[in-house]
Amino acid sequence: MVIEIIKVIIIGIVEGITEWLPISSTGHMILVEEFIKLNVTPEFKEMFFVVIQLGAIMAVVILFFHKLNPLSPSKSKKEKIDTMKIWYKVIIGVLPAAVLGLLFDDWLNEHLYNYWTVAIMLVIYGILFIIVENRNEDRKVKITSFEELPYKIAFYIGVFQVLALIPGTSRSGATIIGAIILGTSRFIAAEFSFFLSIPVMFGASALKLVKFGFDFSQNEIIILLTGMVVAFLVSIVAIKFLLQYIKNHDFKVFGWYRIVLGIIVIGYFIAVN
Q1: Is the dihedral of CA 254, 260, 265, 266 positive or negative?
Q2: Tally of domains in the chain
Q3: Is the pTM of this model over 0.90?
Q4: Is 27:41 a contact under the CB 8 Å cutoff?
Q5: Phi, psi of 143 (to 5 degrees)
């Protein structure tokens, strides 16, 4: 059991870092699990790789609790209304992924959760990040605050989030690319991506838990809780890092990282197979 806990800690660290950086958390966990085999049932593993992300999501809830809390007594009436408007935009942005995720969840798990899909998507979206950032170097940002974010644009960003149903794409990567293309600042793109993750990942986790059932063994409970706690703690650091980083940098470095990692993964699996 000690060995399994060490494996879960490693996976939790990977999840906490990669959930927020636009480099694909699910993709990295699939790749890590190729080398660190969890000694669990396939059904538990499928559920675990989604529900562990609840720990990462709780980091967003904690860090942005005041900003997202419309009932805060320290907020004025206008601030409370503005907070509710953020939630309305989040709900609108969530709809496309929620609907298609429910419809195609089983098909995606069966056909796309493999290292080939992950590697290809890492490269493709790495290239897209570089192209989008080069394209935006001389463009003026249209949306620099949530007050300036129209509901229509929030929905379109949600459409981009649908692309993240393919493992290796990155939910934050897809939404950030989409938001930047649609004219938001990098900071708003990143924050809106964080906020969209809250209902999406709570919903995805609930779906996986219902499908798995709630008949956990003691070891399974320990593994799941350990992964979530580690993901939560690491996510706190990762989110703060990203928000600080994008104040003075673009996302090209993540694009190059994805391309290099994708090529290494493809090369590795060609060699071993």
Answers
A1: positive
A2: 1
A3: no
A4: no
A5: -120, 115
In a domain, 188, yes or no: yes
Structure tokens at 196: 């969209």
CB 57 within 8 A of CB 202: yes
In a domain, 264, yes or no: yes
Assess if residue 113 is contained within a domain: yes
Residue 86 is encoded by which pair of tokens? 């953020």
Q: Which residue has the tokens 């990040």?
A: 129
Sequence-distant contacts of 202-209: CB under 8 A, at least 24 apart: 202/54, 202/57, 203/94, 203/98, 203/101, 204/50, 204/53, 204/101, 205/50, 205/51, 205/53, 205/54, 207/101, 207/102, 207/105, 208/46, 208/47, 208/50, 208/51, 209/47, 209/51
Task: Tell me the pLDDT of the chain (273 aa) as tens digits.
Answer: 788 999 999 999 999 999 899 988 876 877 787 788 888 888 898 889 888 989 999 999 999 999 999 999 999 999 999 999 999 999 999 999 888 877 877 787 777 777 788 889 999 999 999 998 898 877 788 899 999 999 999 999 999 988 888 888 888 889 999 999 999 999 999 999 999 989 988 888 888 888 888 888 899 999 999 999 999 999 999 999 999 998 888 899 999 999 998 898 888 888 887
